[in-house]
Amino acid sequence: MLVVKVQFHILDKEHFFLPKFEDKNIKEVKVKDKVIVKTDLGQDLGIIRGKVDINKDEVEDANQMLRLANEDDFKKMQNQKKEYKKYLDICRNLIREGRLDMKLVDVYQSFDNKRLIFYFVSNSRIDFRDLVKKLIGVFHKKIRLQQTNISDESKIEGDYGPFYRNIYW
After folding, report:
1. How does DSSP assign 90-127, residue by residue?
2. Residue 23: what pLDDT?
3. Whole-number Å distance between alpha carbons of 85 and 90
4. Where in the chain is the domain with CATH 3.30.300?
5. β-pairing, 63-68 with 42-53?
6. Are 111 and 36 in contact (CB under 8 A)?
7. Does domain 83-157 correspond to CATH entry 3.30.200?
8. What phi and psi, each to the nearest 5 degrees, are found at residue 34?
9. CA of 134: how far to CAs of 50, 70, 131, 137, 157, in Å?
């Protein structure tokens, strides 16, 4: 069974989707195409990272993609990114108030504006239930806190490889 791997954020895992769209006019997808997909959590904009042929048993519920992303979608995402600094500042203040031993790395807002994912680094286990409650109260969105490791932080910073080529995205 041929599926495509779609990634929504550089620190997120890749998700499997069928290599076809609900819009039947689109015939083929390519690696690096940006697509709009529907997940259990809502709509998201992601980038196709690859195509793989896997056993049906390995993928439980691979959905079709909705469509290729267009200019309006990119503008919407750019407008959303303008809010990221505000989200990060508020979350950092709440982390300081709660005296939590964690470093906030990045934030991601879903394409449909219903969910925020905060990425953080920590050396120990953290009880952040109160932080999540406060973030829900402030932003009125679904909140997810995703722990990453220090090496993932370099993906956000934009590390470069040989010949000054950007390693990520």
Report:
1. HHHHHHHHTT---EEEEEEE-TTSSEEEEEEE-SS---
2. 65
3. 9
4. 83-157
5. unpaired
6. yes
7. no
8. -100, 130
9. 38, 35, 5, 5, 28
Residue 18's CB: how many other CB atoms inside 10 A?
14
Residues 6+ apart with CB under 8 A from 150: 121
**DSSP 8-state assignment for residue 166:** B
- Cα–Cα nearest to 100, from 147, 143, 140, 136: 147
Backbone angles phi, psi at 19, to 5 degrees: -80, 40
Phi/psi of residue 12, nearest 5 degrees: -90, 155
Q: Averaged over 41-50, what is the pLDDT?
A: 90
- Residue 65 pairs in a beta bridge with 21, 37
Q: What is the Cβ-side half-sphere exposure of residue 157, based on CA atoms within 13 angstroms?
A: 9
**What predicted TM-score, i.e. pTM, was given to this entire model?**
0.80
> Can you name the residues that pair with 34 across neighbouring β-strands?
47
What distance in Å separates the CA atoms of residue 98 and residue 115, rounded to the nearest whole number?
22
List pLDDT tens digits, range 52-70.
887 776 666 678 888 899 9
The sheet carrying 103-109 orders its strands as 103-109, 115-121, 142-147
